[in-house]
# Entry
Amino acid sequence: MSKKSQYIPVNILPKGTNRGIMMLRKYFDGYPDNENVSRPHRDDGYTFILQEKGITHIEIDFKIYSIQAPAIIYLHPSQVHRLITFEKAKLSTWIIKEENLHPAYLTILNDLMPTSALTLSDKTLSIFLQMASLSFILYTEPEENLYHAALTDSINSLAALISSLYQAQSSLNENHNRFHLVARAFSKELERSYKTVKRPAIYADLLNISISYLNECVKTATGQSLSKNIQQRVILEAKRLLYHSDKSVKEIANELGYDDYSYFVRLFVKVTGSKPLYFRNKNRE
# Structure
């Protein structure tokens, strides 16, 4: 077994990228030719993958997805992922650091995480292809300040379009239901606080609503109770750390806010059906 680091690897934008913006448009078939993307990692920015042709197989937080063209997917910087293989795939990829995104779009993108791939109509794909072509022309002129400003504007137009597509899908699914709005607010608070706050009542207090109403909203929106949502978010992070680091189970428990090591192990077994070390060994085989 190869030695793991104490942290999940983060792929930093390579030298030569345009001041916090990276673009790639390329044909792939077979396995990835870069170890940095085939190993589980996070990206140092907000990632957008436009599937122009073919299929891309990708693992995101221990789930495998097959993205078939025409489609687009957005990945938040906190999401751990790896590219598995390609089937005659043509991709346009953008990775954008936070400072290059408009604050309004950044807020929306943070609220959207996590996402699944969106299938595109021919008309929407055509718009994306035009945006990709323009952005790539601007991207290849990194020394020109004027071009960089135009590239940033183009990238933000991309972020706006993707955000609107995801929001439209969300609105269709939720019908602007009050329950879903409350559940979304809870999800944002959970992402900020899951390491330190485990009690449902505290989340209700933070959102200024009763615990019974919050539980009703979350269960209606997600199909699972408030407590289960909290547990699953904690266990997702535990899985990430078990797989991607050599931290002991006790260290992971402490990092996730559990002083009682035995309780953490019981919780992990309850949610996943296996002990932490069994999960680590099985997934590293």
